[in-house]
C-alpha cells in the first residue's frame, strides 16, 4: 500500500458507466492506481454503483435570484466530495461526441449555481481536471479529430474553465471497441472484424499505455504554473 498521510492530496475519480466490467471501469481503476502511486488519496465515485440519478430535480434546479440556495442533501454530499478534491479525473465512454447522460447529469445537478459558478471567487478555483473519454472510433477515423476538438471545447472551455478550474485536459482514448469502427467516405459506419489472440492483447496493451500516458502527462503538468 502506498504511504498516505493527512497532507495527501485527494483525487476524485468519477466513473460514468453502467457496467462494472466495462473497459471504462477498468481504465478508471488503472488511473486511480497510478494517482495513488503518485501519493493521492483516492475518492472513487462510481456514479451508477452509488445510484446517482442524473435527472434534474426541482430541489436541485438553480434559483437565479439566490446563489446560496440549499440544494438536496444528496447534491450537497457530492459538492463536499468535489470541494475535498484537489484533482478530478472523470472517466467515461464518449456518447455522441459528448459525455454520457450519467456524467452530464452529475455535472448539471452538482456543479450548480452558487457552487461551481456564479461567484466572483469560484469555489472550484485552482482545481485541476482530467477528462478520460473512451471512444469507439479508430484513431484514423475521419471523425476523430473533430470529436477531440468538440470535447475540448465543451469540457475544458464550456465547463471546467467556466467553473474556475486552473487546468483542464481531455484524453481521448480511441479504439475502445473490440471491432474497429470507421465512417467511410459515403458516411457509412463500417464495423471491422474483432482481432484475437496476441493481436488483441497488443491492442489492449496499447490502449492501457495511452491511458497511462494521459495520466502521467496530467501529473507532470501539476508543477507547471497554469
Ligand atoms: C449511445 C452511444 C453513443 C456513442 N457515440 C460515440 C461517438 O460519438 N464517438 C465514438 O467514437 N464512439 C461512440 N460510441 C462508442 C463508445 O464510445 C464505446 O462503445 C465505448 O467507449 C466503449 O467503452 P465501454 O466498453 O467501456 O463501454 C457510442 C456508443 C453509444 C452506446
UniProtKB/TrEMBL annotation:
<dbReference type="GO" id="GO:0005829">
    <property type="term" value="C:cytosol"/>
</dbReference>
<dbReference type="GO" id="GO:0003955">
    <property type="term" value="F:NAD(P)H dehydrogenase (quinone) activity"/>
</dbReference>
<dbReference type="InterPro" id="IPR051545">
    <property type="entry name" value="NAD(P)H_dehydrogenase_qn"/>
</dbReference>
<dbReference type="Pfam" id="PF02525">
    <property type="entry name" value="Flavodoxin_2"/>
</dbReference>
<comment type="similarity">
    <text>Belongs to the NAD(P)H dehydrogenase (quinone) family.</text>
</comment>
<dbReference type="InterPro" id="IPR003680">
    <property type="entry name" value="Flavodoxin_fold"/>
</dbReference>
<protein>
    <submittedName>
        <fullName>NADPH oxidoreductase</fullName>
    </submittedName>
</protein>
<feature type="domain" description="Flavodoxin-like fold">
    <location>
        <begin position="11"/>
        <end position="175"/>
    </location>
</feature>
<dbReference type="InterPro" id="IPR029039">
    <property type="entry name" value="Flavoprotein-like_sf"/>
</dbReference>
<keyword id="KW-0560">Oxidoreductase</keyword>
